[in-house]
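Contributing new records

If you add data, match the layout below exactly. Sequence lines come first and carry their own label; structure lines follow with theirs. Keep one chain per record. Anything else will be rejected by the validation script.
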Amino acid sequence: MNLILDTPITIDVPSEEVGTMGDVTTTWVTIGPIWADQRNLTGRELIEAKQLVSEVDSKFVIRYSAQFDSVNAKCRLTRGSRVHDILCAIPQPGGRPNSIEIFCKRRAD
């Protein structure tokens, strides 16, 4: 597969801190910016709670780096002002992966 790394993205990893009163605060630690190849896989619109909701499933492919080993479904991917929920991140199989496929869902309410 020929990659066209023309889409700038960042990956946000959650960091949770427990306050003195036991309240949990989530902050996001940003990795990037990095360049990715974006492919929109599917899209749909539906009515949910009497409101029109659209969903877009996308695949982003990035070059492998050890800093992305911790990317999982708790993380999020940002492209411009659009935030994507990461469903899974899959390194390319083999002895040493050279890319990671990140499958995401963008939900626009």
